[in-house]
Amino acid sequence: MSVPRDERLSAGRVASHLGVMVAVAAILGVVVAGLAIPFAGVLGVGARNVAKAMDNLPAELETDPLPQRTTLVDAAGNTIATFYDENRVNVSLDQISRTMIEAIISIEDSRFYQHGALDLKGTVRALVTNQANSGVVQGGSSITQQMVKMTLQTQAHTKAERAAATEDTYARKLKELRYAIAFEQLHSKDWILERYLNIAYFGDGTYGIQSAARHYFGINAKKLNLRQSAMLAGLVKNPSGYDPTNSPDRALERRNVVLDRMAQLNVISREKADKAKEMKLGLHVVPARNGCVNSQAPFFCDYAWNYLLADPSLGKSVAQRRRTLKSGGLTIQTTIDLRDQRAADESVAGHVAPTDQAIGALAMVEPGTGDVKAVAQSRPMGSKKKDGQTYLNYVVPSKYGDSAGFQAGSTFKIFVLASAINNGTSLNTTIASPQTKDIPMSDFPDCDGNFASTDVWNVNNSTGEGTFNLYTGTQNSVNTFFAQLEERTGLCQPFKLAKSMGIELTDPDRERVPSFTLGVPNVSPLEMAEAYATVAARGLHCSSRPVTAILDSEGRTLKDYPKDCKQVMPKGTADAVNDILRGVQETGFGAQAGIALNQPSAGKTGTINDNMAVWFCGYTPNLATASMIAGANSLGQPITLNGQTLAGQYVVSAHGSTTAGPMWGDAMKKIAAWLPDQDFVAPASDIVNGVQVAVPSTSGMSVSTAESTLEDAGFFPTVSSPVNSGSAEGTVAYTSPSGGSYASKGSSVTIYPSNGKPPRGNGGGGGGGGHGGGHGHGGRGGR
Fold first, then answer.
1. Distances from the Cα of 726 to the Cαs of 89, 117, 700, in angstroms?
2. Is the pLDDT assigned to residue 29 strictly greater than 90?
3. What pLDDT, in 10s, does the model give residues 589-625?
4. Are 610 and 647 in contact (CB under 8 A)?
């Protein structure tokens, strides 16, 4: 709508305007002084000096885009939240009612379309009115002059700039008039009026006519009627003094002044003005919401906001990014599904109250995209600590929410499980797992040699003992089983795999330790949901993302946030993990806790020491959800959940399956109603049975040589008590499985040393049979 910027004022045209102003100033003299415009202050030095001063001023004012509010929308395009420093939505002139345009021109500059930058006739009229009333009743500034002043104030970002834009000096007023002349030459009247209506402040935090119409009447500017338009037009002169929400009587009086002026100018009839004056203001105030606190999803909003503040493409500094987000008029398209969010919020609220000495949290991630569908926590956003409110986001990683996270317990066993399967370990591989087991920490291979420690790790079960395979050891969450499995995988591979699946491990000295498989690192629910989404997507890891795109104020794509996905484990490995974890959810702890779904699902429980936090990470092929309840006092410091009251229910002993699991189940059962019914891919038989390799013959070798030989062949040797054998004492009598037979790579081979005493009878030692795959002793809900 504006004239091209390369159209410039000619020297002659500028001089002509200046000449008119100087002449008028000289003629009006003190008259103009009464209006507080610059000429009074410069008349003492003569008209020639006035012209010279005007010539030295810049003739152009950059019309930067007006600050507009940014809108955060869900995956379906519904508004979640708005951000702004100035609550403004720009509209074109044809999106504003004709009545509104007539009202603003009538009261502010009735000859707007007839005069140039300075309305001399209006100036004289204002002076006469002001003198008659012994004060300033009517201003002499044209709409163009007002618009220039507002533009300069809007572009002032620092304290010094704001002071310069509002200082009561002749220099400022002279500069504004010079700019106004330039605007009148470079732009059409319609362009100036449109910018004026978009830049003007209408009180109560609203900038621009569209935001004002939405705020005071709940309608668009195009729909404003006569009484509404008159009230809004009257606000511009003194937005605070005539604020209809605080001073309705003054707003009504001012509105009627506008109606009278419109009738006086024959814009409307006297009868129509009088009829409108009889009406009330008719307010329908819609509160303006700024930021995340009052949004539909406060902590998802907070996550998205901090995610964007961390994006350097939006500005070199955080301050610049914040300004872009609050004034750019952007539309931020997010991944949240409000149906999922409501289900998550309701479930969390039903299990943990805001003032409980615990935090309940759910995070939901879509496998194959990384789209974050919902984040919910029990402590609402706010500053009222007595009501349990907080600004800490406990659901997301610390870089986005400032929470340090919580240990995740046995949910970390998935990383050792996947590493073992990836190494060729059969799902039927069995390991004898006693109730307690002491393992030297130096037995665990690390990234560079074995783990450097002389300590012994004492591992205890909470779910019984026995001989377990990968299915039963996982379903019963047997700690001594997984400690021994981790001996085979080493520490390096599970640690690196966890990082590749989205766990933000940053301190290997503290986190890459033998107890890694029991979940000692602190993590957030979102990290765990992302990791479990990876196995749900058959090994495809997609980084969590709350935002998919940013659009500018015209609806054009400013930036895309595409999926960031990478295959981090073979599909076959992921299929096997899914098959094992289905046993935990569909027939194991999940079924026992009543949280099984009517569609395929899988999951893993987790409980940390002293029951300070409990977890359930469960998923379908198309949605992964991490559920966490952690004991925490009002300062967020960890405490035990045992003996706590959660949402009115006393907790004797907290567990992942019985405490965090039901919170997961209540949310997922609702969401399952609209999730596509999809099945997991069954693992291939060679994955289930493992890679079959020949067991080396080690009879007659020393035990240490036999161990090395078996390890080199891909087996995990264990040494039994000595047996009667004709072989030399201390050498290998036989192994089980026997040398020459085939067994799964990564499986156990038991070495039986000879005691040097031949057996009675026929003598000779036959090859031993394999160990059974029994479930061992039962036990209560595990970690």
1. 94, 116, 10
2. no
3. 777 878 888 899 999 999 999 999 999 999 999 999 9
4. no
**How far apart are alpha carbons 664 and 587 in whole angstroms?**
16
Six token digits for residue 137: 């009743």
Q: Which pLDDT does position 140 carry in this prediction?
A: 59
In the block, tokens 């969450």 appear at: 477
- CA nearest neighbour of 243 among 210, 212, 288, 289: 212
Query: Would you say 619 and 601 are in contact if contact means Cβ atoms under 8 Å apart?
Result: yes
- The structural domains of the chain, ordered by start, are 11-56+87-277 (1.10.3810.10), 691-783 (3.30.10.20)
User: What confidence tens digit (pLDDT) does each residue in 459-511 have?
Assistant: 999 888 999 999 999 999 999 999 999 999 999 999 999 999 999 998 888 99
Contact 241, 247 (CB under 8 A): yes
What per-residue confidence (pLDDT) applies to 131?
58
Q: How confident is the model at residue 4 (pLDDT cuts 50, 70, 90)?
A: very low
CA dist., res. 73 & res. 246, Å (int): 32
Residue 766 pLDDT greater than 60, yes or no: no
Residues 6+ apart with CB under 8 A from 505: 495, 498, 499, 511, 512, 521
Average pLDDT of the segment spanning 760-764: 55
Give one DSSP letter per residue of 609-632, joined into a string.
Answer: GGGSEEEEEEEETTEEEEEEEEEB
pLDDT tens, 55-110?
A: 555 556 667 788 999 999 999 999 999 999 999 999 999 999 999 999 999 999 99
Q: What pLDDT, on the 0 to 100 scale, is given for residue 117? A: 80
Give the containing element (helix H, strand E) for 85: none
Angle at 511 between CA 420 and CA 400, to 5 degrees: 110
What are the backbone angles phi and psi of residue 10, rounded to the nearest 5°? -75, 155
Burial of 78 (0-12, 13-18, 19+ CB in 10 A): exposed
109 versus 158: the higher-pLDDT residue is: 109
Distances (CA, A) of 121 to 32, 116, 142, 534, 590: 12, 11, 11, 74, 84
- Report the distance separating Cα 663 and Cα 620, nearest Å: 16
Backbone angles phi, psi at 362, to 5 degrees: -130, 140
The reported pLDDT for the residue numbered 497 is: 98
Closest C-alpha among 510, 493, 433 to residue 467: 433
Give the residue from 449, 724, 741, 689 showing the smallest Cα distance to 576.
689
Interval 241-272: pLDDT, tens: 999 999 999 999 999 999 999 999 999 999 99
Contacts of 98 (CB under 8 A, 6+ apart): none
Q: What SS3 string covers 410-468? A: HHHHHHHHHHHHHCCCCCCCCEEECCEEEEEHHHCECCCCECCCCCEEEEECCCCCEEE
Instruction: Give dist(CA 708, CA 33) in Å, integer.
Output: 103
Residues in the chain: 783
Report phi then psi at 406, rounded to 5.
-140, 155
DSSP state, residue 682: P
Pairing of strands 716-719, 748-753: parallel
In angstroms, rounded to a whole number, what is the distance separating the alpha carbons of residues 299 and 291?
11
Torsion angle defined by CA atoms of residues 600, 604, 605 and 609, in that order, rounded to the nearest 10 degrees: -170
Q: What are phi and psi of 555, to 5 degrees?
A: 85, 10
The amino acid sitting at 453 is S
What the block records as the tokens of 655 is 């567990």
Encoding tokens for residue 460?
A: 């205890």
d(CA 618, CA 524) in angstroms, rounded, equals: 15
pLDDT digit string (tens) for 324-363?
A: 999 999 999 999 999 999 999 999 999 999 999 999 999 9
For the range 706-715, what are the long-range contacts, defined as Cβ-Cβ under 8 Å and sequence gap of 24 or more?
A: 706/732, 706/735, 706/751, 707/751, 710/735, 710/749, 710/751, 714/424, 714/745, 714/746, 715/743, 715/745, 715/746, 715/747, 715/748, 715/749
